[in-house]
Design goal:
By secondary structure, the protein is an alpha+beta fold. It contains eleven helices and seven strands. A five-stranded antiparallel sheet has the order 2-1-7-6-5. Strands 3-4 form a two-stranded antiparallel ribbon. The model has no long low-confidence stretch (mean pLDDT 94). It binds glutamine. The site of glutamine has 12 residues, from helix 7. Homotetramer.
Length: 308
């Protein structure tokens, strides 16, 4: 079957997926239409296919984490970044305070504590928040191949209910992992999460990682091959939080989810994948998105460890 026909069939099969709830701890996110559904695939040769509500915009949320981690690695090198955040799966929820016993480093950059620490490294370690966020926005825009913008309504909504992330920032400060004022640290992180994308943007961004750092549509090298490898390896072990182990055994695709209902995955050397469906399971991963990824993995034989 040609890819577009296959994606149409896949969408129809998964459109009736029941269960899950739209995130409401960020009030603005609860206003989304829960029936929105889309899938996009970008091959490393630059061909993009998408079906469903593929022009619907949503905030990138935790799917920003692998890309800001990539920016930090490009800017500072692995050695410096490892001093700030480790690469071990936490086995805990995305907003858990999972820190290394001895050093106080967050266990990985895919959980909030790690992402707040990594955000702080961007644009020189002492950057004012607006310049840091501009740097990230520009960096993400190169991955997407178009100029992205920030949804300030969503950012402000999250900032009104941000006690949990603020407490993480305070803990990170107490361990000297971050130097920023806690409010600034969280604002930088929340604005990075509020960059707006659609499912095609995500697929192209994922394909850039899968393609070893070269954006497959524009041809621009954005990160080195070793940074792309590092980011995908951490996604594989920690991208789905406390569901990461089960995800890797059943789906076998490095992936990252976000509470807006997006999900992205990478097949190194082959594909970037993305889905969008707002209702989430108890671990904060899109229910229909996970179902689509499972089917894609089975139908197309995409499990990384599969040999047949
Ligand atoms: N901005 C969100 C938060 O910190 C991102 C969480 C997510 O997408 N899992 O709560």
């Amino acid at each position: 079957t040609p890819i577009p026909d296959y994606l149409d069939e896949l969408m129809r099969d998964c459109a009736g997926t029941r269960g899950g709830n739209v995130a409401d701890y960020i009030p603005e996110l609860s206003k989304v239409d829960p029936s929105l559904l889309s899938v996009a695939v970008c091959a490393t040769n630059g061909h993009v296919y998408s079906v469903g509500d593929d022009t619907a915009k949503f905030t990138i949320q935790s799917m920003s984490k692998p890309f800001v981690y990539a920016a930090a690695l490009e800017e500072h090198g692995l050695k410096r970044v490892l001093e700030v955040v480790d690469v071990e799966p936490s086995g805990e929820a995305f907003n858990e305070l999972s820190l290394d016993d001895e050093t106080g480093r967050p266990l990985n950059p895919m959980i909030n504590a790690g992402a707040i620490a990594v955000n702080q490294l961007i644009n020189g370690e002492e950057s004012p928040v607006p310049e840091r966020v501009d740097y990230i926005l520009d960096f993400f825009s190169r991955f997407a191949g178009r100029e992205l913008t920030i949804n300030h309504t969503v950012a402000d909504s999250e900032l009104e209910h941000v006690d949990r992330n603020l407490s993480l920032a305070h803990m990170l400060r107490s361990y000297d992992v971050i130097q920023d004022d806690a409010q600034d640290a969280v604002r930088g992180y929340v604005e990075q999460c509020s960059i707006e994308v659609d499912v095609r943007d995500l697929a192209v961004m994922a394909a850039t990682l899968a393609n070893g750092g070269v954006q497959p549509v524009t041809g621009e090298r954005i990160i080195s091959a070793s940074v792309a490898r590092q980011v995908q390896a951490v996604m594989a072990s920690a991208g789905m939080y406390d569901a990461a182990g089960r995800w890797m055994t059943t789906v076998g695709i490095p992936a990252k989810s976000g509470v807006s209902g997006g999900m992205l995955g990478t097949l190194p050397g082959q594909l970037g994948l993305a889905t969008f469906s707002p209702p989430l399971d108890g671990k904060g991963n899109s229910v229909a998105g996970a179902r689509i990824f499972r089917r894609l993995s089975q139908d197309m034989g995409l499990h990384l460890m599969a040999t047949e």
